[in-house]
Amino acid sequence: MIRNYFKIAWRNIQKRKVFSFINILGLALGFGCSILIFLFVNYHLQFDNFHNNSNRIYRVVTEEHQDAIEYEASVPPGFASVFRSDFNYSEKVANIFIRQEWQIDGMDSNTNRLLEDVVFAEPDFFEIFNFPLQESLGTHNFAAPNVAYITESFAKKMYGDSTSPLGKTFRLQNTETIQVIGVLNDIPTNSSVQGDVFISYESLKNYSQFAYSKSWGGITNSLQCYTLLRPNQDISHIEKTLISLVSKYRPKSKNVHRYKLQPLADVHLEQKYGGINVSLLWIFSLIGIFLIAVGCINFINISTAQAFSRSKEIGVRKVLGVSKTKLFWQFILETFLISLFALLLGIGISIGVLPKFNELFELQLSIQSLLSFKVISFLITLLLLVSLLAGSYPGILMARILPTLALKGKLTQNDTGGKFTRKVLVTAQFAISIMLIVATIVIGKQINFAITSDLGFDKEAIVMLEIPEEIELLKLQGLKNRLNSISGVSNTTACLSSPGAAENEWGTSFRYHNRPQYEEFSIGAKLADEDYLNTFNLKLIAGRNFFTSDSITEVVVNQRVADKLGLSSYEELIGKQIEANRGRVKATIVGVIANFHNQNFLSGIGPVFIAPEKTGYSELAVKIDGADISTALKAIESRWKQVFPKFVYQYKFLDERIAQQYIEEQRFLSMTKIFSGLAIFISCLGLYGLISFFIALKTREIGIRKVLGGKVKDILAIVMQDFFKLILLAGAIASPIAWYFMNNWLQNYTYRTEINWWIFVVAVGLLLIITLLTISYKAIKAATANPIKSLKTE
């Protein structure tokens, strides 16, 4: 019986090659995209799950309660030691301190000079996390200063394959000599903690006294604290207990801390603490469902339309005693075969585009990942669901055809049913396409708005150079003088970070003038020399710039400071004193500048002061003439090597760095464009199949209309008007839904674009044009055909 079902199903597929091809291709594209989306979503949801006891590993984070709540993926440097000694909740506690792109040099001419991400880690870090050692020097202790574990990949890059790296040494930032005492397996890509070089935390005191200290006065996201809790701990109880640390160690601060335990599984998925925007995962999942749904709709529409042409076949089989149930399962099996072919083709498509997919999202998904149990289970489930969803309704329609009407040739389209359902499903296809088009336009509009808006400072033709930490001030000033002598260089400034960069800005509580209390809000500090304002064209609206100084005695603030203080004019700030960083900074306000985006476009503009602090500079900004950039870059590199011959020269353009802040949105836009195009293409495949079938049924009607004087345009209007009505209906349904979801998405941005009415008009109009192009070929061919031939044959 099953064998006969397969034979009949295969014959029907062969008999209707064009329609079978349309169904298979539409479903295959849906399957292929769904496979990639499943791999993408599963990759992100499985972050950090490879660690032993991952359900007991937590990162300690901080909520900073002031006039607003800010979220920091860190704690003060003194937290870890107190949590370890004063409480009994944890088995292990460890700090890590992350530094990106630090220079590492070998000790002889046969080794390389590399820029690597460096992680300073306390010994318990490797007891909390499962980063196994391949080999180690058993006589050495990771708690000792100037020792390191390195990954296998880094060992090969640094020392080659021929010799063991154990016992070898390297220079870190051209200052300290570090010995390799262990080789780790490469860190998995789905690990929240990334790095190729792990150096003992005891070595950190040579580079950051703040992070190595027991201070409770500041927070930097470079410092993170992880803990392995004892089994069966009550997280809410621990967090309530930690409130006592605030009153004990930060009794006078207006910046009220709340220390929270973040599960390891949430580290990658909580955007407020620096993780990804998890809503994008669910949006991608929804798009995958949409694409499968569009393919299924094509199948249902074409299959129900074919019910009329297959009526005699069904009538004969019913007369021969085949039951409705057997006819239903026969059609389900036919659907299963088509779905199976489509799935195999979809797997091939996903394998073919996987390298480009990895490149777009900076992933390392492999073909072998398709062979995992989870993926295979997903594919089998998807195959069965699609077979049932796509085959059930057409199977029911065909099974209920009356054999007497079918064999007498008196069966009509109304008798086979499905006409209303087809209209509903086609409308659903159009609605999905319109929603995706609207999403593409809105996302692109927001990204363009963020990148092209006036940020309050110049970002064009500014080169950012990372300068070595703890450099001699004379060398820095010497480099500035050499760079300023280059033709085409207009300004240079040394700073902790540029405008629009949040990574190196630090916030602090402050007291204004003679007010007795610290303010309820913190102020951001941009450490920079006196050329900062001119280089970035920050507009001075009151007072003057600060003078060159070896310490912070004068500061410039932005307008937002006056707004937050409730002052009536910006001139009121001039000459007033501020005290910040627990009294370490006492300075006079000498100037007020216009507001600028001190962090990124996702955040609001906060109060900021700019002040000179020569020991705190990490970057050099060089403003160059855009007319001859390549010549200027070569000259800058030459001057750099003259002053810092032992350090790697690297630079980035400020506008490119700012654009990188929106890389997640750029990828989201690329994905949405691709999927919107595919949804429209799959819908057009279905439309082509439907129009081919309906024109074949209307051949006689078209011939009669032409004989009676009907014009080609009138016949085209008859063929197309139903589809155009459905598109307009779909636009009316999809527009409010698309507006709701995209408006919610835009709420993630403090500064956002508008969702204009013309976006929906463009989406509907674009779909009208695409539909017209899709069905016009068949419609024009039928309208211009010789009516005598159609009337003879029909």
UniProtKB/TrEMBL annotation:
Naturally occurring in which organism (per UniProt): Aquimarina litoralis
Principal localisation: membrane
InterPro entries: ABC3_permease_C, MacB_PCD, Macrolide_Exporter_MacB
Every ABC3 transporter permease C-terminal domain range: 286-401, 674-787
Domain MacB-like periplasmic core, chain residue ranges per copy: 20-240, 431-638
Compartment annotation: Cell membrane
Name the record gives this protein: ABC transporter permease
Pfam families listed in its UniProt record: FtsX, MacB_PCD
Lineage per the UniProt record: Bacteria, Pseudomonadati, Bacteroidota, Flavobacteriia, Flavobacteriales
